[in-house]
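__Protein archive entry__

___
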Amino acid sequence: MAMCGRYESIGYSTAMDLLDNDPDEIVKLKYSDKSETYEVFPINSGIIRTDTGYSVMQWGIPKWNKKGHIINGRQETLLEKLFYRKDFTDQRCIIVASAFYE
């Protein structure tokens, strides 16, 4: 659940391979061209891997308040905070990234 503000994902051709050339999933990524990198900002879509396979999901934590989007949590208190506890224990995934920016 500890997240950075933005990250670089894999390129278009690799994404096509991982997503089995599924046009509905590729469209969610909104590649501006057929580049080999894709920078993902909060609320953009990126590729993830779960126990059921690869898919595309929105980056970040849903906006529940008017202060803005939550993009990170403190690792040392994740299990103490009700806001994070269920997601941290039950909804894990691997984020397909080639770089991240702090």
